[in-house]
Write a structure and sequence with these properties.
Keywords: ANK repeat, Repeat
Number of strands: 2
Pfam families: Ank_2
Order of helices and strands: HHHHHHHHHHHHHHHEEHH
Radius of gyration: 23 Å
Number of helices: 17
Protein name: Ankyrin 2
Strand order of the largest sheet: 1-2
């Protein structure tokens, strides 16, 4: 019996890239704010009502049951006039929301509110603020592809490399979600290419290969990312690209010449080992065959 036949129903597991583990503020958009008129006015972007309530003694740093202060909610939608009014009346720009640990800068960064981010930074917001699991505004901006916010954070001194406790970095999240422009910015800021997502052992290149992000893979490879860096299960970027049927990335990882043809056809300057097998003996050719990617089988040696 061949190795392939003996493997039978073996399948490579889709990578859990980490974004499903990141705390976000999406529920604040619809959270009930009954009994919290200042919060309601801040969320809907009403600076007149916000100013009136503050002049009547409303607390700009009180958090609603959802865990958000008025400054968080104004940041959610980028209401700059409301943000200025709140800050002018004593709102703490680095106030941490109970439960989430998020600051207003986290919120504005996640939603790509570039001018709100600029205003908060100019008002003293800490660019590298991290919640208990290590999530920073930079990671949220990178994950969501907000290159304007990433630029502002980099200029403000936020590092491109700091990771969460599980090893997830802004570069890893940008690579996993296919944020090409953000990946370029982070690489220019010397973000480390070999950081690993601890639960899986995957690198940014592995994540890009698994998701089929060709342009991201090209940038990482030209920046010196290791081609054959394996995840915890022993699978390499080539192996996972073959399993998922991403022929352009397979060609990229196999070729020794640098050239980029269009958006989908990708060749790179480093060569991956085409016959490297998992500990169970299965090679990229065999995994491609197992998943029915017959065209890929013609590219991969037995």
């Amino acid at each position: 019996m061949s190795v392939l036949e003996s493997m039978g129903k073996v399948r490579i597991k889709p990578l859990r890239s980490g974004w499903d583990e990141v705390i976000t503020t999406r529920e604040w958009a619809s959270a009930s704010l009954e009994g919290f008129p200042l919060h309601e006015a801040a969320r809907r972007g009403d600076p007149v009502t916000v100013g009136m309530l503050l002049s009547q003694g409303a607390d700009p740093n009180q958090c609603a049951p959802c865990g958000a202060a008025p400054l968080h909610l104004a940041s959610l939608y980028g209401h700059q006039d409301v943000l200025r009014t709140l800050v002018g009346h004593g709102a703490q720009v680095n106030l941490v929301g109970p439960g989430s640990g998020l600051t207003a800068l986290h919120v504005a960064a996640e939603w790509g509110r570039t001018e709100a981010v600029r205003l908060l930074l100019d008002s003293g917001a800490a660019p590298g603020a991290a919640i208990p699991d290590g999530t920073t505004p930079m990671l949220l901006a990178a994950m969501n592809g907000h290159e304007g916010v990433v630029r502002l954070l980099l200029r403000a001194g936020a590092g491109a490399g700091p990771s969460r406790l599980d090893g997830t970095t802004p570069l890893y999240m940008a690579a996993a979600t296919g944020r090409t422009l953000v990946v370029r910015l982070l690489l220019e800021a010397r973000a480390p290419t070999e950081c690993r997502h601890a639960p899986t052992g995957a690198t940014p290149l592995y994540a890009a290969a698994e998701k089929g992000h060709c342009d991201v893979a090209s940038l990482l490879l030209h920046a010196g990312a290791a081609v054959d860096r394996a995840a915890q299960d022993g699978s390499t970027p080539l192996y996972v690209a073959a399993a998922m049927g991403h022929s352009n990335i397979v060609r990229a990882l196999l070729d020794h010449r640098a050239a980029l043809e269009g958006h989908h056809q990708l060749l790179i300057a480093r060569g991956a080992c085409p016959t490297a097998a998992l500990p169970n003996g299965m090679t990229p050719h065999q995994i491609a065959s197992l998943h029915g990617h017959t065209a890929l089988c013609q590219l991969l040696p037995h």
